Amino acid sequence: MGIINLSPDSFSGDGLENRDVALLKAKQLVADGADIIDVGGESTRPNAAPLSVDEELRRVIPVVETLRKEISIPLSIDTYKLKVAREALDVGANMINDIWGLQKEPRLAELAAQRKIPIILVSNQRYISVHHDVIFPDIIYVVIADLQKAIEQALAAGVPRENIIIDPGIGFGKTQVQNLEILRRLEELKILGRPILLGSSRKSVIGWVLDLTPEQRSKESAFVPPADKRLEGTAATIAIGIAKGVDIVRVHDVREMARVCKMSDAIIRGLGNKLATVYLCLGSNLGNRMANLNKAVALLSQKVNIEKVSSVYETEPIGYKEQPLFLNMACQITTMLNPGELLHFVKDIEGKMGRVQSFPNSPRLIDIDILFYDREVIKNDELNIPHPRLAKRAFGLIPLAEIAPQLVHPELGKKISELVGVVEGREGVQKWTSGD
Q: Could you list the active site residues?
């Protein structure tokens, strides 16, 4: 996402006021590799004077209208004002970027729902005291809770879950130490199940780290040098962000950061592939059940990364009751295999281990089900994701809730912890503590 700032007092010093200059800048951003252009008229730097609605309209509407006629990629309007967002959408904007995450104007969610467009929800703590390290002992917990609340607001207003993007809000009411903590723990935002946007470009935390001495950094009022020497620091945040699961990066220096993205993607996601987070359920009720599960995990690890494994649960069989009890467990994996390739891989493991299924729900040496593949919804003759019967299967939900309680079902819109609380048959699933 490339940035068009129409504010003369932009923190990064790149504010524009002339629509012809803005058009030239936007065209250059597209040529440099931008996929989205974000247009904003009000400075978001700390302590910036609020802009009137009329002045913001004067700055952004002519530019959005001009860009829409000349540029084909999506345009985002960076505003928290309802009238500005509505008029920008009227002249060609395709999405809303709300730096207040619906705190100042909840009706932006209704507008996004009506127009069927994406909305970016930013976690912003500027409404509280600056002493966040006292108020917020765990800033990631605060950000996740803040974004979860905003997501629920948007959903209640009718915004489809797939149209919600989240942004942890680097620089928005956090201390510099907290900004670094968020960057270090970005992967924890994946628990919300939405695409993550990172807006770290040229932020003051970069100058604070690179250009101040430890003694200067210890002083709250320390002067941070201007933003024109933060290219390398921005590149570091972008590369690390991608490694931790960020999906969109909002940047000023598109040409350089597009190259950082390309290289980072090749390392993390592979050329032409992406690194997906997948949840599996494994079960066995024939032979040495625990040995079967261990062997299946070992075979899986030959092609995928095993991130988390639940406890093992002994569970009553479903459907056909006259068979041994199952052992079940859940796994979180990451993989560059696409859904079809992953399905063939797990079926191959089942075949190698000697699985034979003579009738539905029959006994088996090993069973491997794909429960979730990122946030994707897939329905075809070969594969259905999310697993269509998961919400009714206690033996799958209980171990999954152990490793991913906050994971959100992309179709039902509920957390796994919520689904576990109402599923039937929980009494037939007990943590396994003895050998076969």
A: 203, 250
